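Methods: holo model generation. Sequences were used as deposited, without trimming of termini or removal of tags, and paired with ligand SMILES retrieved from the corresponding compound records. Each pair was processed once, and we did not select among multiple samples. The sequence and flavin-adenine dinucleotide SMILES for this entry were:
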Amino acid sequence: MPDHPHDRLPLTGKATLPADHALDAGSAAQPHGDAAAGRRRFLRAGAASPALLAALGGGAGGLALATASRPARAALATSAHVVIAGSGAGGLAIANRLSHELQGAKITVVDRKEEHNYQPGYTLVATGIWPVAKVSDRNADFLPAGVEWVREMVVEFDPDANTVTTDAGTKIRYDFLVVATGLHLDYAGIEGMDPKAIGTNGVGSVYNGPAGALATWRTMDAFRNKGGEALMTLPATPLKCAGAPLKMTFMLAERLRQAGTSDRSKVSFHSALGNVFGVPVVNETVLQRWKALDVGVEFNSRLTAIDIGARRATFSSPEGEKTELGYDFIHVVPPMRATDAVRGSALAWREGGFAAGGWLEVDKSTLRHRRYPNVFGIGDINGTPRGKTAATVKKSAPIVAGNLVDVIAQREPSLDFDGYTSCPLLLRQGAALLIEFDYEGRLTPSLPMVDPLQESWFAWLMKFALLKPAYVAVLKGHV
Ligand SMILES: Cc1cc2nc3c(=O)[nH]c(=O)nc-3n(C[C@H](O)[C@H](O)[C@H](O)COP(=O)(O)OP(=O)(O)OC[C@H]3O[C@@H](n4cnc5c(N)ncnc54)[C@H](O)[C@@H]3O)c2cc1C
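and the model returned the structure below.
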């Protein structure tokens, strides 16, 4: 079985758009319906021209939209030591920005991970659209010169002593700290779930790294050829890319349709919540579309246990009532929480809605720690409403870096973050919804030719071909 089906899964009898030719619109997968009209509008407007793409910011799309509006200013001379815990999207973006915005500072990045994964590409791998090689790069290629890289993991944050301690026993003293550890996928929170089983016995899970995404596609591919019962799940915790479980559902329905096995299949989405997406108008749109696709939805139904060998899953209601269901394919979305080092430290929220997950206690506007003024947070670890996407990192990195420079210069933070979150919601090959919103759940569309609630070929093109270059530009601190 090939790792990716570019050669054999044309949606409409035409060749699927290869990534390297993504801007050659003539070779693209053929969209239909609203997406086709959107594509015509986009092309008529000359929107695929290099000039427009350049204007979108070194790539395009949700990741490359508006940045904080601060005029460029001279680097601040300082001898401060800044430690950045984590070298994912947020950590690298901050390291690159600070290396330009500070002169004379010592910057230390702490993270053992050598490989850099483009996580927004996992849904494309897990649904058979991208080869897995496209989501793996090397962190070393993105770290700026002059930054110290400690290849160890932080096991203890002591913000009262201004130190972090690593799993190798190294104690590092800092003047300023940026917490960028991402989050923890809590597969252990589902009884019987073993992430190593992804790819076996009908178990898929897009979240568990590149290998997990590829194994998920192999499982989905085997399932779609036969059809049967599919269970899609959504936990009750905050999620990174809360749209990913929905994308997996739309694409599963599409793969069944392509294989001609829809009529012998049943797809049911079990949400642990009373909705499937936290922005009401998007929730409604998704539910309407699933109704048309015959995707059933169960609310307040949380995956609590799985018997992988027997292919049986147990769902619990808020009242504790249990329902056991058999399946041929299950998409497991793990509960998510803060990484252990943050959760067990004085940096975590102590009360309120973010305390249970141990999320970082930052002010949602300045992204500065609410109790430790020399500490900032970026990315998935932040205990803020919404905002766990790479697009959030893109929009907030200039704010975190700018506010940190203010604090180093003994000024008050001057930039505010609005919670920008973005999610190109895949509907099928050639069509997506580009959903952008803020902390309040208000839609904040930023491309005039894309209506967030109408399927769009351009939103698909962004997800398929334009967002990875934009993401790399974010890591490098260019946008
Ligand atoms: C399936 C999926 C689909 C997605 N789709 C999209 C999308 O379409 N659009 C979008 O914008 N975003 C999407 N995202 C979300 C996006 O990838 C994340 O929001 C983004 O990567 C968060 O960046 P981060 O730096 O906070 O965390 P990460 O990029 O996860 O990096 C965290 C880093 O911290 C390190 N670390 C962890 N613990 C420690 C420790 N104790 N000490 C030191 N280092 C530590 C890790 O090794 C890692 O390198 C998706 C994510 C997934 C999984």
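Residues 432 and 459 are 5 Å apart (CA to CA).
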